[in-house]
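input
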Amino acid sequence: MVELIAVYERLVEEEDELLNKIEICEGCIAGIFEYLVSKKDTHIGESILTAVHTIVKDLQTELLHLRLEKSLLADRIKLAKNSG
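output
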């Protein structure tokens, strides 16, 4: 059970890290939008914006899988405590 809790804590740390990365990327997207509006040239900027958006989507997918794993592990911990 101690091992399960250690794994769960590691997943919580990974979740926090992913959320931080997503927040940073979203800040970058906002900055790119501002820059593009000020320069009135979206041709090159659009591809950069799309690339950062793709990174955000990849991170969100990773976060989804991590949260599923974390939920399943939490259930295993709960069952172990109840049987314990």
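quick obs: The chain is about 95% helix and 0% strand.
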